[in-house]
Specification:
Layout (H helix, E strand, L loop, with lengths): L12 E2 L7 E5 L2 E7 L5 E7 L10 E4 L6 E2 L2 E7 L6 E7 L2 E2 L4 E2 L14 E2 L34 E3 L22 E4 L1 H5 L12 H6 L1 H7 L3 E4 L3 E3 L23 E7 L11 H15 L3 E6 L16 H9 L24 H16 L5 E4 L18 H8 L7 E4 L19 E3 L1 H12 L5 H8 L3 H4 L9 E4 L8 H4 L35 H20 L3 E5 L27 H5 L1 H16 L14 E4 L14 E6 L9 E6 L5 E4 L9 E6 L22 E4 L3 E7 L1
Parallel strand pairs: 13-14, 13-22, 14-17, 17-18, 18-19, 19-20, 20-21, 21-22
Antiparallel strand pairs: 1-7, 2-3, 3-7, 4-5, 4-8, 6-7, 8-12, 9-10, 11-12, 15-16, 23-24, 24-25, 25-29, 26-28, 27-29
Helix pairs in contact: 8-9, 12-14
């Protein structure tokens, strides 16, 4: 039998069972199971309280002859259940040159833990498995016990009243995505919510999302991460920088504790589920941005939190010298995601979020990294990606791939499997370049608004495989895209070398904010052009949260470490820029009103006719910056639409074709017109006075409807 710490009330143990992994209640006790192939000793630590300073009330060393089945270590403990707090210690070889980094002095989190406690006491510096002061660096061995600096695992209570909540299963063609950050969405005082920066705070903004017309929120990472892992200060004001975005996951099953309004054990589970249920009642789906390409443990100099201390050689892609990590994530390590053990872990995690947390879909950060083998080569048919797409539990959830990684892979249009939609980076770049006025962009821009058939059709995919976006969390906001020619990331403390240099942006005369009315006029017009383009294009539109009221980051295009007013939503901008909010809301409504813009198939030659300003077929490789198209509904039930685009600096007189059946053109949108004439609601579109021509102003987009 296992050795038990000497206490007056030592728990009664049984061998337990190897599956399921993690914590599992049955027969009046708790079964704990964890994977480690190369460990020589495994111990369970039990705690009376969530405080990280508490020493364990019991330390149970597992006997490998009884409590091990294959590579799974397991034990059943009588009387434990919901509310139990635990962690692991794992011993084995510390041989970095062979890929082994076991350290019995480091407390490890269960990768299957559905909730953590004590995350506010984290200190990653104390979690390193080596002696940082040693000249041998990570080849040395740390004897420092980090128990007071490590969070703990909580056995969660799953008795939540979902009230028959079900995932919504909204069609891709009807989806409008709003990418946002849980904390940043409501933490600013101007949000005027009772629970700022939390899951419950987001609930208070649901009426706003409904008014805007959003059908899905895509939340930046909510899986547990450590916001204070950075050790740099802002060189401009000396304040500590924080991991704001959260792309540095510690516990993949666990929602972030600090995003709950109440700091009580398990409160984050209740509040996250309440958020999901309430969003569903409002008809809004929940998509999670999830980061399986790497973990918070980083490279060889990083902390030992869970995977590294459980079995480093299994969980990570290692170099030929196994001391070092392959880095296709740009953050130090890459998960060995196509190893069968890691593959099963990722599938179990996704199922957990779908079954227990009721989420509707996932956006996979740097998803191309999930298609690499143990040597780092891209696989033609990656087993993990196929398993996710074909898994019977995940079969109907929304799957979105960021179809590239930091190792040079770029798979937009060729990401494996037809179930996956993709962030269409070419849509972002081509639309930006067209409206900036770059020469030779007519053909590329036409392809983007028509669903990117040149990218997707050859592989049997459809427009809904394209997630169209102009801006996202990574890069300029829409306001900054038309206000800055260059990034301004000095506050990040990296000498402005971080962040993308290829932003395809412009400032139209002055860098940054200005009161110049002429510059403000063109910026306002360009913002409307971008929003309108996004919402008329076939595919699935994704709006960056706050773009609808000109949220700015002051030119910072990599605000990952700015947990402050640089990143937070200042809701005063909604009052100041209500014109943009109104335009965005009505453009979303226009998209929903005209089914022809949302078809799941590509346009045919009978559906769309392309026009030059002279009424002829455009010369796609010309130096012109103006063209248009007529979209005819194939069933002739919907009225025809005429779309006109002028990215040049001069007014263009555009020849319009006559409409069949005696219909006349009416004006739906003209971004050159002042509000409220920039967009007209259905049924109120004014008649175009000169039916054969339209005077298309510089930097403007026009939508006409036949009626």
């Amino acid at each position: 039998m296992a050795d038990i710490a000497t206490t007056l009330n030592a728990p009664r143990l049984r061998v337990g069972v190897p599956l399921p992994l993690g914590a599992y209640e049955y027969s009046g006790g708790l079964n704990l199971a964890v994977f480690s192939r190369h460990a020589t000793q495994v111990s369970v630590l039990l705690f009376d309280a969530p405080s990280s300073a508490e020493m364990p009330c019991h330390s149970i060393e597992l006997d490998p002859t009884q409590h091990r089945t294959g590579d799974i270590w397991h034990v059943w403990i009588e009387g434990l259940g919901r509310g139990a707090i635990y962690a692991w210690r794992v011993d084995g070889p510390y041989q970095p040159e062979l890929g082994h980094r076991f350290n019995r002095h480091k407390v490890l989190l269960d990768p299957y833990a559905a909730a953590l406690v004590g995350t506010d006491c984290w200190n990653f510096a104390c979690a390193c498995g080596f002696d940082a002061a040693s000249p041998m660096f990570d080849l040395s061995f740390s004897n420092e016990d980090d128990i007071q600096w490590q969070a703990k695992c909580l056995v969660s209570d799953n008795d939540f009243n979902w009230q028959d909540d079900r995932r919504l299963h909204l069609a891709w063609a009807d989806t409008v995505i709003y990418e946002s950050h849980v904390r940043g969405f409501t933490v600013h005082p101007s949000a005027k919510v009772t629970q700022p920066g939390t899951y419950l705070g987001l609930i208070e903004k649901i009426p706003y999302l409904k008014e805007l017309g959003i059908t899905a929120v895509e939340l930046m990472p909510v899986q547990e991460f450590f916001e204070n892992e950075l050790v740099r200060n802002n060189p401009l004001n000396g304040k500590r920088l924080r991991n704001y975005w959260g792309y540095s996951t510690v516990a993949f099953f666990a929602p972030k504790e600090s995003y709950a309004s109440r700091r009580e054990p398990g409160g984050q589970l209740i509040e996250f589920k309440t958020m999901v249920k309430t969003l569903h009642r409002a008809g809004i789906e929940v998509i999670l941005d999830i980061v399986f390409n790497h973990t918070a443990e980083g490279n060889e100099s990083g902390p030992t939190l869970n995977f590294r201390g459980l079995d480093n050689r299994i969980y990570y892609l290692l170099g030929d010298d196994r001391r070092y990590y392959k880095n296709y994530s740009g953050t130090g390590n890459t998960l060995n995601s196509n190893h069968p053990v890691v593959r099963d872990y990722i599938l179990d995690c996704l199922r957990h979020w779908v079954m227990e947390m009721h989420v509707d879909g996932f956006r996979f950060d740097l998803a191309s990294a999930l298609g690499r083998d143990a040597q780092g080569n891209l696989i033609a048919n990656p087993p993990l990606l196929e398993r996710i797409a074909e898994d019977p539990i995940l079969r109907d959830v929304k799957l979105i791939a960021e179809a590239w990684d930091a190792g040079g892979a770029y798979q937009v249009g060729s990401f494996p499997g037809q179930r996956w939609s993709e962030w269409n980076g070419r849509f972002r770049d081509d639309v930006r370049r067209f409206w900036r006025g770059d020469i030779g962009m007519l053909g590329a821009f036409a392809n983007r608004i028509a669903g990117s058939s040149d990218i997707y059709q050859h592989d049997g995919k459809q427009p809904v495989n394209s997630i169209n976006f102009i801006t996202c969390h990574d890069g300029f906001t829409l306001n900054d895209l038309v206000s800055y020619r260059n990034k301004h990331n000095e506050a990040n403390g990296e000498n402005n070398v971080d962040g993308d240099n290829n932003n395809y942006s412009d400032n139209y005369g002055i860098e940054g904010a200005t009161d110049d009315p002429a510059i403000e006029e063109v910026r306002l017009r360009q913002i409307k052009n971008f929003i309108a383009t996004l919402l008329i294009a076939r595919g699935v539109p994704m709006l960056l949260g706050g773009d609808e009221f000109r949220r700015t980051q002051g030119g910072n295009n990599n605000a990952y470490c700015q947990d402050n007013e640089t990143s937070w939503y200042n809701w005063e901008h909604l009052r100041q820029h209500s014109e943009i909010f109104r335009f965005t809301r009505q453009m979303i409504a226009l998209r929903k009103h005209h089914k022809i813009l949302r078809h799941e198939t590509f346009y045919t030659a009978q559906d769309i006719r392309w026009l030059s300003p002279r009424g002829t077929t455009p010369q796609w490789n010309s130096t012109e910056r103006t063209f248009g198209c007529i979209i005819d509904a194939p069933d002739s039930i919907e009225p025809a639409l005429c779309l006109l685009f002028n990215a040049g600096q001069d007014e263009v007189d555009f020849v319009l074709p006559a409409i069949l059946n005696g219909c006349l053109w009416r004006i739906v949108v003209d971004t050159a017109q002042p509000t409220p004439h920039d967009i007209n609601i259905p049924g109120d579109e004014p008649l175009l006075q000169k039916q054969g021509r339209y005077s298309l102003q510089n930097h403007s987009l026009v939508i006409l409807i036949g009626g």
